[in-house]
Amino acid sequence: MKLIMKTIAPVGRKHTATVIFFHGSGDTGHNLVEWVRFLLRKDMEFSHIKVMYPTAPVQRYTPLDGELSNVWFDRASISIDAKESRQSLESIYETANELIKNEIDEGIPASRIVVGGFSMGGALAMHIGYHVNTEIAGVFACSSFLNRGSIVYDSLANRKSPNSPLPELLMFHGDRDSLVPAEWGEETFNELKKLGVNGDFHLLKNAMHELKAKQMMQLQEWINRILPEYSSGVENKL
């Protein structure tokens, strides 16, 4: 499945790392770019990193009474207790992993790729980084959660190489989020930590189900640390 894509790439040079930023349910990659631009008063851009903003396919979404919407996967309800729709997830795994494979084919190692997202997009990113492809560099999730009994937890608990490193995790959650309570995000973070994931969880004061400017600045700093710019000598070998 080919996705509509909005991309912010370095000007005048080949990128040496990639960030894939998944939007929340009912949104688009284009709208997410505009939201980030509004918060930062500029694009989230880097001298050496390409940032990709794909748009989810249009499909029927149960929480909207089966109406069509741009969503990454279907689910019974927006609840941490709901069962995952694993058939729906399987469909988007292949599509999202194809984005990673395309970057690898362009010469970007998996260890130079970060995936993340807002709300449902953050949940997808955690599925990708801790179930589908654990070789990527990092995962970020904003106002997101995993369902109790998630396949992600099963996958981490049954890893064939339990001592191999996992992608670093960065999570943000608003303390006034009424759609996805902060407790769901904290529970998700703690469960992943128990299963060997290292990272940080930031509770945002007076924040609802939203992105904030300070949060985006912290995210940029984290991305730069996870995906540092190569020295010119190393970059020329890519």
From TrEMBL:
Top EC class for this record: hydrolase
Single Gene Ontology MF annotation: palmitoyl-(protein) hydrolase activity
Keywords recorded for this protein, A-Z: Hydrolase
Enzyme Commission code(s) on record: 3.1.2.22
Keyword Ligase (UniProt): no
SUPFAM superfamilies named in the record: alpha/beta-Hydrolases
UniProt signal peptide: none
Stored Pfam families: Abhydrolase_2
Domain Phospholipase/carboxylesterase/thioesterase: 8-225
Family matches, as InterPro entries: AB_hydrolase_fold, LYPA1-2/EST-like, PLipase/COase/thioEstase
An annotated GO cellular component: cytoplasm
Keyword Hydrolase: yes
Family: Belongs to the AB hydrolase superfamily. AB hydrolase 2 family.
Name of the molecule in the record: palmitoyl-protein hydrolase
Species of provenance: Hermetia illucens
